Amino acid sequence: MSLAYPPPPIAPSAVKNTASFIRIVALSAIAGCAIASRLFAVINFESIIHEFDPWFNYRATRVLASKGFYEFWNWFDPTAWYPLGRVVGGTIYPGLMATSGVIYNFLHSIHLPVDIRNVCVMLAPAFSGLTAWSTYMFTKEMKDESAGLLAAILIGIAPGYISRSVAGSYDNEAIAIFLLMFTFYLWIKALKHGSAFFGTLAALFYFYMVAAWGGYVFITNMIPLHALVLVLMGRYSSRLYVGYSSWYAIGTLASMQVPFVGFQPVTTSEHMAALGVFGLLQLVAFTELVRSHVSSKQFQTLLRTTVVSVGILGVFAIVIMTMKGWIAPWTGRFYSLWDTGYAKKHIPIIASVSEHQPTAWPSFFADLHMLVFIFPVGVLLCFQQLRDEHVFVIIYAIMASYFAGVMVRLMLTLTPVVCIAAAIAISTLLDTYMDPHEPEAVEAPAETAGASASQSGSGPTPSATITKKAGKQSAAKTGLFGIDTRLAVVFNTFFLLLIFVLHCTWTTSHAYSSPSVVLASRTADGSSAVIDDFREAYYWLRQNTPKDAVIMSWWDYGYQIAGMADRPTLVDNNTWNNTHIATVGKAFATSEEVAYPLLKRHDVSYVLVLLGSLIQYSGDDLNKFLWMIRIASGVWPDEVKEADFFSPRGEFRVDDGATKTMSESLMYKMSYYRFHELFPQGQAQDRVRQQKLPAVGPTLDCFDEAFTSENWIVRIYELKPDDELGRDHKSANAFAAGKKRKKGKIARRRFALE
Amino acid sequence: MPPKPSATPKPSASTNAFSSLWKAYQDETPARLKLIDAFLVFLMLSGIIQFVYCVLISSFPFNAFLAGFASCVGQFVLTASLRSQVNPLNQQEFKDVSPERAFADFALGSIVLHFFVFNFLG
């Protein structure tokens, strides 16, 4: 057999040892890379919690760390959802907090007194290292160790996953992706070996995943789907039965221990697939058992009809129970994945979240770079081999691609399978082109040439198929000869991988590493300026208001106010009570006279609005105003009408063309109160909406401006106390301003007789 | 698992078939597996009784019912898994799992299951 280049003269045992040593070094380097590339935000800014949701997780973790687990478990938070309060223990997934609580206590027990904030900030990078490792283990089951290493480095730095796991993003996804991959790995192990041990472990990690993230439903449906497809393909084996049954029996019971999940695994439609496949497997197993005892044809038909009829009956039973309402139908959040227009029509609060929009093609490329092209090749290679575990990757790829296409946020679950499939593809390519063996004997008959080529490569390589195709012409000179072709392909792949690293680093540092609490901007000379209005305002609230002053704001800022300002809020990011949110929306969308009594009834002392008009911060409350109107009009269609806020030509305007409803709404007045004073007369300009504001700004009767931050981003208003003389605020203000009633209009005022 | 008489009505051929199946089962199954099968039947009966109680009388402490029923179902499938792992006919399929290993797996699975059962009884 001829060789393209001589293999290095090393003994096979030495090669083996060196390889395993290199693997360890590579894995630790990958973990280091994964952690290091998530630290941009901490190094550039500071070690704080980003975004909105993590602030609640952080607050809950602080309770856990300071008061212990039982206090946390039974924590009733009277400051959230002000009049109502929130049972925290029963409305969260406690896995994230429990994890950092355990780490915190462990570090303290070995006398490393780390602050809980730093544990929370660094949790996501630490777990991304574990994700890389578990992806390695998973891919190792699919192909071999070298593909595993490739997959590990790909997931370690892929921006699709980094976006949810930078340092400071203390969200459920931080640990969930590790748990997802590790549960899948254990499931594949359980399936391959038919071992109840791995099935039990998979159930335990499934339990951890259920405790950590609402996306556990993905696992609950992926594993049954895999099992079902295997049964339909005629690949049922006792190993499948052992793996699936042990996973389902233990995992379902375990998942019900999480208070937030409760009885859902037996009462909701999301979990019925798992139950159905469980029942089906029992049937199939029983059939197989009977078949092993008898071999008569008659029996097989008898049993087959029994299995099919019982299966159909089972499906009917589930359908009927859903119709009858014994099994809860799909919740809106999941249902909107299938019927993509559903959320917009019926639940505006789901549609209002920017992460719930469909994904555009550029964001696929930005998040996955070249992997998005190689991904289908990897899936194709899985089809070529098609062992039981490859079916899993194929299903996962199809399902996750669909979901990622429907919702930006689900790009996160797509990223692991893209990395795995791409790693399989790249590693197959490298296996083929780094293999020194050349196709044998050019003069040999075509059949043998083809056969030897396919033997020399691992698996049916492209060269082999080409050789076979060209087989008719004897002395086929196709195949991999010489070192130059090999080098060309290998170097090209290597080059692409390098570009991938560059792209990932660039995307991470530019797009995903900015804490939304602090806004970074650049001045003209290139030095960076930090806009810190949020914390300025929140700390003003913290230090200058009474401890029990209720703050009203739009729900986006609820968690941050509770976390940083430490004050009760009306609504927050946990949008469990739509009517309460609609109340806030109504208060913002109506005039002062309507809103003031409404706020009084809710004991509100301060109202907080965001305004980006001065420094072009586009995520301000006026841009979210339409959603407030929509959510409010869903509950009070008579009092809040969306059409009233548009000009006759259907435009949403804040300038002179603004409608009366718009310019009298509380949100408009609060945003632009005294705003025109910043500009020369008549030149007030809104830099976000690019419109010229009216020369005379709005006046406020029932509210006092309490605080406005440096760049006018956060504005806080205080509710005026009731007038001492019992007048309404409008006439009291008019009197104070010295406005007389017009002459000759001495009122015949009419009051009802008491 | 012993063949339970199926409810599907079939002509005389099937009664004949069932008796021959029963005979084949008696002849071919080792004593160890028969012991496991007896346990499986017991678990099945226990589960059925609980279910009937739940349907006829009350499902009021629903978590207690679920815990008891899931303990039966879970123990049933774990035992059935053990049965198929130690079944000499399946030796081809379970190359990595020796009968002793299968028993240890079974013990571990049952312990974990019952830990959750007791936690869930409430």
Automatic annotation (TrEMBL), chain A:
Pfam families: STT3, STT3-PglB_core
Reaction(s) the record says it catalyses: a di-trans,poly-cis-dolichyl diphosphooligosaccharide + L-asparaginyl-[protein] = N(4)-(oligosaccharide-(1->4)-N-acetyl-beta-D-glucosaminyl-(1->4)-N-acetyl-beta-D-glucosaminyl)-L-asparaginyl-[protein] + a di-trans,poly-cis-dolichyl diphosphate + H(+)
EC class name: transferase
Cofactor: Mn(2+); Mg(2+)
Gene Ontology cellular component annotations, sorted alphabetically: endomembrane system; membrane
Signal peptide positions on this chain: none
Keyword field: Glycosyltransferase, Magnesium, Manganese, Membrane, Metal-binding, Transferase, Transmembrane, Transmembrane helix
Compartment(s) where it occurs, according to its Swiss-Prot or TrEMBL record: Endomembrane system
Comp. bias intervals (Low complexity): 444-465
E.C. no: 2.4.99.18
Domain spans labelled STT3/PglB/AglB core: 548-599
Main location (coarse class): membrane
GO function terms (MF aspect): dolichyl-diphosphooligosaccharide-protein glycotransferase activity; metal ion binding
Oligosaccharyl transferase STT3 N-terminal domain span: 21-422
Transmembrane segments annotated in the record for this chain: 21-43, 87-107, 119-139, 145-162, 174-190, 240-260, 272-290, 302-327, 364-383, 390-408, 414-433, 487-508
Domain of life: Eukaryota
Pathway in which this enzyme or protein is active: Protein modification; protein glycosylation
Topological category with respect to the lipid bilayer: Multi-pass membrane protein
BP GO annotations: post-translational protein modification; protein N-linked glycosylation via asparagine
Gene3D superfamilies: 3.40.50.12610
Residue span of region Disordered: 444-470
Similarity-based family: Belongs to the STT3 family.
Protein name: dolichyl-diphosphooligosaccharide--protein glycotransferase
Source organism per UniProt: Serendipita indica (strain DSM 11827)
TrEMBL record, chain B:
InterPro entries for this protein: DAD/Ost2 (IPR003038)
GO biological process: protein N-linked glycosylation
Chief localisation class: endoplasmic reticulum
One Pfam family cited in the UniProt record for this chain: DAD
Cellular component annotations (GO), alphabetically ordered: oligosaccharyltransferase complex
Membrane topology: Multi-pass membrane protein
Function: Subunit of the oligosaccharyl transferase (OST) complex that catalyzes the initial transfer of a defined glycan (Glc(3)Man(9)GlcNAc(2) in eukaryotes) from the lipid carrier dolichol-pyrophosphate to an asparagine residue within an Asn-X-Ser/Thr consensus motif in nascent polypeptide chains, the first step in protein N-glycosylation. N-glycosylation occurs cotranslationally and the complex associates with the Sec61 complex at the channel-forming translocon complex that mediates protein translocation across the endoplasmic reticulum (ER). All subunits are required for a maximal enzyme activity.
Name of this chain's protein: Dolichyl-diphosphooligosaccharide--protein glycosyltransferase subunit OST2
Species per Swiss-Prot/TrEMBL record: Serendipita indica (strain DSM 11827)
